[in-house]
Amino acid sequence: MTQASIIDGKAFAEGLRGKVAELAAKFEPAAGRKAGLAVVLVGEDPASQVYVRSKGKQTVACGMASFEHKLPEDTTQDVLLALVDQLNADPLVDGILVQLPLPKHLDEQAVVDRISPSKDVDGLTPISTGRLALGLPGLVPCTPLGSLMLLKDRLGNLSGLNAVVIGRSILVGKPMAQLLLGENCTVTIAHSRTQDLPEVVRRADIVVAAVGRPEMVKADWIKPGATVIDVGINRLPPAEGSEKGRLVGDVDFADASTVAGAITPVPGGVGPMTIAVLLRNTIVAAHRNADLALAEDAI
Ligand SMILES: Nc1nc2c(c(=O)[nH]1)N[C@@H](CN(C=O)c1ccc(C(=O)N[C@@H](CCC(=O)O)C(=O)O)cc1)CN2
């Protein structure tokens, strides 16, 4: 039985952060200030708190300024929009990220829409989304861009490959499909209403799973030798006697590894790329905002 090679997102992310740090070190004397990232967290969601803490630490470790804004769970839409306006106007802030999901009473899309496109390091505003769809340069959502970087590093040219993206979220599925289309893949977006999903996935040279259903994709869904990118991060219920459940992806890793050519693990695959690409997008935005040249394709 063959065994898939493991795509090490943690190591790749470390390399990317190293490149960001080099650029940030050169940016500071050229611009007369550090590149800056503002992260907004509303409420007490434990996973979001961990991600936001990690973002702050990694921003500072790369030599950029981190501005953290923590708001209570009962924050009103008006207060949140006023904070986004304030960050849009702040010349020390190059990138703004509102951690998702927001508490249910808030209108997520309206908040994202308020972010200035020049500071949209999450790539979620209508302008960024439209530019991606048109194939124009812009800021691209972090998880899909990180997944594409891993794919290109593993496979080189993706042109002509069949890609199936499972999931159609704004954060991952849709932008991922656009990025793969931009690489001349033949792209299928599968979702909860797709008929005979295993059969659709079996045609794919590249599978990107982003549905949020623990270990849904099995070995017999995978074309032998396919490259599998697992975007899912699901915490299983804790086993008896332990406090925390195991973290698994949307792909049954042990099972799919017997058929795939290469596969990302969870943890240590796509997850670490999400924050590394956020830092990459921040230094890119900083150069644009300060009118400094940067070879964006090189990072
Ligand atoms: N505004 C945004 N909100 C959210 C995004 C986003 O890109 N923009 N993505 C996710 C959460 N996320 C970052 O915000 C994120 C998820 C996972 C990881 C990560 O490194 N995961 C580790 C495991 C971590 C653990 O033990 O729990 C891994 O996979 O190895 C980083 C960032 C939703 N919200």
Automatic annotation (TrEMBL):
Catalytic activity: (6R)-5,10-methylene-5,6,7,8-tetrahydrofolate + NADP(+) = (6R)-5,10-methenyltetrahydrofolate + NADPH; (6R)-5,10-methenyltetrahydrofolate + H2O = (6R)-10-formyltetrahydrofolate + H(+)
Domain Tetrahydrofolate dehydrogenase/cyclohydrolase catalytic: 7-122
InterPro entries per record: Aminoacid_DH-like_N_sf, NAD(P)-bd_dom_sf, THF_DH/CycHdrlase, THF_DH/CycHdrlase_cat_dom, THF_DH/CycHdrlase_CS, THF_DH/CycHdrlase_NAD-bd_dom
UniProt keyword annotation of Zinc-finger present: no
Keywords, in A-Z order: Amino-acid biosynthesis, Histidine biosynthesis, Hydrolase, Methionine biosynthesis, Multifunctional enzyme, NADP, One-carbon metabolism, Oxidoreductase, Purine biosynthesis
Keyword Oxidoreductase: yes
Family: Belongs to the tetrahydrofolate dehydrogenase/cyclohydrolase family.
HAMAP family linked: THF_DHG_CYH (MF_01576)
Subunit: Homodimer.
Name of the protein described by the UniProt record: Bifunctional protein FolD
Organism: Novosphingobium anseongense
